[in-house]
Amino acid sequence: MAATPGTPRARALSAALREARKASGFGVRELARRLSLGHVQISQWESGHRVPRLEAVAMILAVIGTPRDERERILGLARNVNEPNWLTVGVNGIPQQLAGVVECERTASAITAWSPLLIPGLLQTVDYVRVIQQNGGRLSASDVELRVMLKASRSEVISRRIAPVRFTALIGEWALREPIGPPAVMVDQLNHLLAMATRPNVTLRVVPRHVGWHPGLMGPFMLFDFPDAPPVLYLEHHSSGAFIPTEHDVAAYRKAMAWLGELALGPDESAALIATLIEEAAT
After folding, report:
1. Where are the domains of the chain?
2. CATH topology of domain 86-282
3. What confidence tier does 188 reach under pLDDT thresholds 50, 70, 90?
4. CATH of the domain spanning 8-79
5. Dist CA 172 CA 189 (whole Å)
6. Would you give the DSSP letter of residue 67?
7. In this predicted structure, what is the pLDDT of residue 229?
């Protein structure tokens, strides 16, 4: 059975093939010649418009000489590409999980995020990310900087000149008040939120404290909408994540997001609250 294009795992596979080819120094036409295939077919595989069979993926990786560990990771994506839901678990799952998130962000037409305790990833400053990585992962200095730069590059989907993604962020007030790093880091982060909120494609609203129970207390989540594929729900945890395209789950979380929207301050009120917190942090 042919795999469905546009699922998170299929998107991660197309991105992995594209990056592996570029890392090997092969152009699309040269690779197509080596495989006796049309270059349009390879372009469609790399763009996610079509999904290659496992045999084709194996041939590509063999021709371009992909290192063993990376080859096994990509083949793992190809073997399970037909599965709609995608759960990545444990430290070894992080690269695949991150690849799926990055590709969903890159190709989405709209992203809606609920973040109760941290600033949403697409709105985080470099220093804010660095503090989190230094304290939370027991990583080497080089690994910390690699993750910081990767995180920073992801925000380009909001600020790019052509077709920036529409991003709606509902943020818990606790996330604005929790001191992640020294005061200067938080002041810079809050100022960045105010700057991003002025962009026409970004909507930022704060859900205040002490509003009673609501479904957002169960944890953070994101909804990705695509121009060419069904929407996807993403649930992220410390060292795992789940991509869920199931229609009834997506609908349930849209209702949860609507509930949060009823509790949230408006954009202007949210900006005023953030400005107040900046003044408090600076004194």
Report:
1. 8-79, 86-282
2. Endonuclease; Chain A (3.30.870)
3. very high
4. 1.10.260.40
5. 15
6. -
7. 83
